[in-house]
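Task 17 of the worksheet. Students: predict the tertiary structure of the chain below and write it out as structure tokens. Keep your answer in the requested format; marks are given for formatting as well as content.
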Amino acid sequence: MSKVSLKKVSKCPSCGAPVEPSALQCEYCGSYFIPEKDDEDFSKDKFSAVLNSTKETSVICIHGRGLEKGEYPIRSGPANLYRGWMNAAGGHLVLTNRRFLFIDHGLNLEFKATPEEESIYLKDVADVEAKTVMLVSKRIVVHKKDGTFQEYVIWNQKKWVDISKNVLANI
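Model answer:
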């Protein structure tokens, strides 16, 4: 899938067909485009037409990224992928029914997310916890079953943790 901003899209990120910049759905493959917002929760019902589509290219696209077939977003918001002091990548964190997906915003020249950092599949997640550093830096920590972890600096820390734990409990 290509990484394009939906604000500038002229081609569907899924099938490559021409798309009107204001369109929310590709008329050729049926992919659904989610307009960029700062912080949003989603319901599976909103995507039933795309999820029930028999077209292989019909997917949901968020922040210019096409999700996997059958995958849908649950929560999305601005985030920094935190690696350590003075080493972070900015972008959006998306919690789907299958994974945590970090989509960097393209302005990260030296600190782009690696493929291993972009996706953490829920089957590999052991726990999600809140972490506050120096009273200001609100983070969530995604602990993986292999003993490694990934930290994200986010807004609405408690909401992220609550939703994440609920999703993990139901997989």
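Marker's comment: The longest strand covers residues 73-84. Residues 1-8 have pLDDT under 50 and may be disordered.
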